[in-house]
Amino acid sequence: MVRRISLTFLFFFLIEPFVTAAQTPVVTDLAAADVSTHPWSSLAKVNNSVGGSCTATVIEQDKVLTAAHCIFGRRTGRFLPPSSLHVLLGYNRGSYKVHDLVGSYTIGHGYDPERKLATLSSDWAILRLVEPLPRAVQPIELCEQTPSPRALLATGSYARGRRHVLTSDEDCQLLRELPGQALLENNCRGAEGSSGAPILSTQDK
Question: In terms of pLDDT, which residue wins out, 174 or 203?
Answer without folding.
Answer: 174
